[in-house]
Design a protein that fits this description.
The structure holds 2 protein chains of 2 kinds.
Chain A lengths: L1 H10 L8 E4 L5 H11 L5 E4 L2 E4 L4 E3 L5 E3 L6 E4 L8 E5 L4 E9 L4 E6 L2 E11 L13 E4 L2 E6 L2 E3 L4 E6 L2 E6 L2 E3 L3 E6 L2 E6 L2 E3 L3 E6 L10 E6 L2 E3 L20 E6 L2 E6 L2 E3 L6 E4 L15 E6 L2 E3 L10 H7 L7 E3 L2 E5 L6 E3 L4 E3 L3 E3 L3 E2 L10 E2 L16 H7 L1
Parallel strand pairs in A: 1-2, 2-5, 3-6, 4-7, 5-8, 6-8, 7-9, 8-10, 9-11, 10-12, 10-13, 11-14, 12-15, 13-16, 14-17, 15-18, 16-19, 17-20, 18-21, 19-22, 20-23, 21-24, 22-25, 23-26, 24-27, 25-28, 26-29, 27-32, 29-33, 30-34
Antiparallel strand pairs in A: 30-31, 33-35
Chain B lengths: L1 H10 L9 H6 L22 E3 L11 E7 L6 E2 L13 E9 L9 E12 L2 E10 L2 E4 L4 E8 L5 E8 L2 H7 L1 E2 L2 E2 L6 H4 L10 H7 L3 E2 L19 H12 L56 H7 L17 H12 L21
The chains are: A mainly beta, B alpha+beta.
Chain lengths: 405, 355
């Protein structure tokens, strides 16, 4: 405690003037809250007292070093059911911000988004679409993008029509001890570097945890993502994403899916009751024109996980046939076996650097070249191979961690 | 400031408007009148010059009046792309008003708000002054103003006009970490004042307020609504002005990979056969931002037509769809060659699994 205080003192030169701005429920919530978020100074805390705040517009924060704090995710509720304006409930565009102990309901677009933040902690939040899973719900619950030093901790997201927790184009990330259920994707790490996804529960989504990389974006080449000690359970929800989105192609019943990333470690997770594939490792499936993009999964290791009761009823095309060929149930790991791709614009062919290793049974479809249709699959068992990562855990700035305690 | 007042008092004249340069540089004045940019009747003070844009942003049919004031003796620097480089001390002014009837846009104008971009030593600052009884006052949090008017089709329209909050100002006026002007680019000023006057770039250069104007080769943004100009130029100008402030590499929507600035040439970044990234339900079930030849299967048009938050684009700044803008982009997409379709998607498991 004393050390945390010392760190906080060192981290905030303006602590002497740091103040608590209290906002309470009742008339004109929108203007009161937004004014507080605009007038806060670095080091200040905006305290939103228990109550339900009916908001017709999004809220936004653009001041560095501010904490926004409620009295608990079921006590302080930002209610966006009647939202008329803005693409998210709460938008953060500043650095070293902590948002905690709040409920965010029925945002028209995303729940909480940070764009371009260095230091963003989303702690003990509840983001929920209270009418249950629907394609008309907002896309993402917690959505840091183009951000750095990202922490999502002890939060819950329910009902997102894309990903509950989505970290995009970001770096140095920890998603931990959170829960995602009844979303299309539970937790998704996309086009991001250096992430730990640890101790979370993803259940009753269409797909539990996804690690993706997509072309034509400012940050790509997703890499160094470690998934450990997560509970990935019964992600068999019907996929209710709007067609066209990448997650609309995630088969219901997917536990963990790794697409077009490098150095992904899937270790010591409990993956149970997912009707499709417990762990699916694939290349980007679409045609692309981005010459800088690498569509291959490479250097992926699956080790020490506890798999149970998965793969009974794969929903994806050809899944049943493959399952039937291996005795009715898919083994834990399904790899498309794509190991090379043609660089667009006649740039020749490139091979994957680093293979796909699993200590648990797996099947490769042996498709070879990116773009080869699944009808040409030559399914064969993968050779079990135990590769355990030694990479150290992701570390966030101590001051941010202290404020997130 | 006090000295100026004293001089005026000594002269015994009615206080003619006088731009308060020091106040602009240092202070977020509580009232617009404090800056002395306009007289009580709304006429600009000496040196506060009107300018117009070939293609303006759509703002729910508001009439907009733009002015620039540069400190005496200073100059803006020419830039071929992006806004001109205005000197510290510059203030850019945009006044919003609604006519009672859009078919008579110059009549019965009701002033709503005045937005300022002030170039201070530490960077640009965005302020909005909302008309209330007795003058325009500073508002940092968003304000809704009920507005009624008769539209061009003769229909009565009632909207909650949204004055942006301070953060929303920055969302659009963002270039990396900094706030930047959007409108007064060389390309968008490259035309006559009010469309028919003297070329504005030449005028500013001749008056000594624009340095570095090359002899020729200036970029020019088309007038979006001038049917005599090429469709492609009009559509790109419309998208640049209405979308490009966020959809640029340094803008708020940089993470989307959709870049609608005038300089962009890569088809995928312009949206052609580009798949959505984080559109969510904003995709409307469509696969591409722009599907050539198929405006009704293009996410970009879908989001222009929508008026529902979470789907509509731009995310704020309008409550109504811009029918004429939608028609222009529809025509543009419909006329695109379909030849550039990519090979059909590969069908590895994930791709074929759509439920």
């Amino acid at each position: 405690m004393r050390m945390a205080l010392l760190i906080a003192l060192l981290a905030s030169s303006s602590l002497a003037q740091a103040k608590m701005i209290h906002v309470g429920p009742g008339g004109n919530a929108q203007e009161k809250l937004q004014t507080a978020l605009i007038e806060a100074q670095p080091g200040d805390t905006v305290h939103i007292a228990a109550g339900r705040y009916a908001l017709a517009d999004g809220l936004s924060l653009d001041v560095d070093g501010v904490s926004v704090k409620g009295d608990g995710p079921d006590k302080t509720i930002l209610d966006f059911t009647a939202q008329k304006v803005a693409g998210e409930g709460l938008l953060i565009t500043s650095d070293n911000v902590v948002v905690r102990d709040l409920g965010i309901e029925n945002a028209a677009g995303n729940g909480v988004k940070s764009k371009g933040s260095d230091g963003i902690a989303l702690v003990n939040l509840r983001v929920e679409w209270t009418g249950g899973p629907k394609s008309t719900n907002g896309a993402y619950g917690l959505y840091p993008v183009s951000s750095k030093n990202v922490l999502i901790d002890r939060s819950v997201v329910k009902g997102a029509s894309d990903a509950g927790i989505y970290v995009g184009q970001s770096q140095n990330i920890i998603v931990r001890n959170s829960r995602a259920e009844m979303n299309v994707a539970g937790i998704e790490i996309e086009n991001s570097y250096d992430a730990d996804v640890v101790g979370n529960t993803a259940t009753n989504n269409a797909g539990g945890i996804l690690v993706f990389d997509l072309p034509d974006l400012p940050q790509q080449g997703g890499r160094n993502v470690k998934l450990t000690n997560n509970q990935v359970i019964a992600n068999n929800h019907v996929n209710f994403a709007a067609p066209g989105n990448i997650v609309a192609g995630v088969p219901s019943g997917t536990g963990i899916m790794v697409m077009a990333n490098a150095r992904v470690m899937v270790e010591n997770n409990h993956v149970m009751g997912n009707n499709g594939s417990a762990v699916m490792v694939v290349a980007y499936t679409q045609a692309f024109t981005d010459q800088a993009y690498n569509p291959l999964p490479r250097d992926v290791s699956v080790a020490g996980n506890h798999f149970m009761d998965n793969g009974k009823a794969p929903a994806f095309k050809g899944g049943k046939e493959i399952a039937a060929a291996v005795g009715g149930t898919l083994p834990p790991v399904l790899w498309d076996g794509i190991t090379r791709y043609a660089v667009p614009g006649g740039g020749g062919e490139k091979m994957a650097e680093g293979g796909i290793n699993s200590d648990a049974p797996g099947i490769s479809l042996n498709l070879g070249l990116q773009g080869t249709p699944a009808t040409q699959a030559k399914p064969a068992p993968m050779q079990a191979n135990l590769v355990v990562s030694t990479r150290p855990a992701i570390v966030l700035p101590a001051a941010l961690e202290a404020r997130a305690k | 400031m006090r000295r100026v007042l004293t001089v005026l008092l000594l002269l015994g004249a009615a206080p003619a408007p006088h731009v308060q340069a020091d106040l602009l540089l240092t202070t977020d004045a509580p009232r617009l009148a404090d800056y002395g940019l306009f007289d009580a009747a709304g006429h600009p003070a000496p040196g506060v010059q009107p300018y117009t844009l070939n293609t303006p942003l759509f703002s729910d049919h508001a009439e907009k009046f733009r002015f620039a004031w540069l400190p005496p003796g200073t100059k803006a620097e020419y830039r071929a792309s992006g806004a001109l480089a205005f000197p510290v001390g510059t203030v850019l002014v945009k006044r919003f008003a609604f006519p009672a009837d859009l078919r008579q846009p110059a009549k019965q104008l009701r002033a709503i708000e005045t937005r300022l971009l002030i170039h201070r030593p530490a960077g640009w600052v965005a302020l909005s002054y909302v008309e209330q009884d007795g003058g325009a006052v500073l508002k940092r949090a968003s304000v809704k103003v009920p507005v009624q008017f008769i539209d061009k089709a003769g229909r009565a329209q009632a909207i909650d006009y949204a004055v942006p909050n301070q953060n929303q100002c920055k969302t659009c006026h963002q270039d990396g970490e900094a706030i930047t002007p959007i409108g007064p680019t060389a390309g968008n000023l490259n035309g006559g004042l009010f469309g028919h006057g003297e070329n504005q770039l030449m005028r500013w250069a001749a008056s000594g307020q624009l340095a570095g104007l090359p002899a020729g080769g200036w970029p020019r943004l088309a007038k979006w609504d001038d049917a005599a100009e090429p469709l492609d130029s009009r559509a790109r100008a419309y998208l640049a002005v209405n979308c490009g402030h966020c959809h640029s590499r340094g803008g708020f929507a940089s993470n989307s990979g959709l870049y609608l600035v005038p300089e962009e040439t890569t088809p995928a970044h312009l949206g052609v056969l580009k798949r959505p990234v984080a559109a969510g339900r904003g995709s409307g079930g469509h696969e591409f931002s722009i599907l050539p030849g198929q405006p009704d299967k293009s996410i970009l048009l879908h989001r222009m037509i929508a008026s529902e938050p979470g789907i509509m684009m731009p995310q704020f700044g309008r409550a109504l769809a811009h029918d004429e803008g939608v028609a222009l982009i529809r025509q543009w997409i419909a006329g695109m060659e379909i030849a550039s379709m990519p090979a059909p998607a590969a069908s590895a498991p994930a791709a074929t699994a759509a439920p």
